[in-house]
Amino acid sequence: MMSRRNVLNTLLGLGTVSAALAGVRSLFSSGPAHAAPSYEVTRSDAEWGKLLQPDQYRVLRKAGTERPHSSPLNQEKRAGVYGCAGCALPLFSSASKFESGTGWPSFWQPLDKAVVEESDTTLFMKRTEVLCQRCGGHLGHVFDDGPKPTGLRYCMNGVAMNFKAT
Fold this sequence. Notes:
Blueprint: H1 4-13, H2 15-28, H3 45-51, H4 54-60, E1 80-84, E2 90-93, E3 97-98, E4 106-107, E5 115-120, E6 127-132, E7 138-143, E8 153-156, E9 161-165
């Protein structure tokens, strides 16, 4: 029997799924991905396109997903802080990082006031999307199958973050 994590890992591992994710979002969502909140750091779409690498732009600004096991941050073991690649806001401490087996950097807790969470009903699923609190960049999703003490798994796209060793 396959677990929900294995099913998602298999589906998201297909290159065509990650390439089509932004288009599918627009077909099955009720409105713009990040319409409600106002963020401290705002830029035009063209400015984000110039500021970010193409893969960062696709994930952070278009809610894409990187291929599993593709981010060097998944293997990062040093003490430090993971920050938003769009605005440099510190998001996660290495102290909350754990190996989830999913192929994406996973954490059991974000830093205080670092992220916002929104309902995501794309791809015929109900999930919780995780966004940078400062710029609204899409980071990944949070699931309730993580380790203690929170029981949460913040499954983040490594391309959406930068790492700074302490």
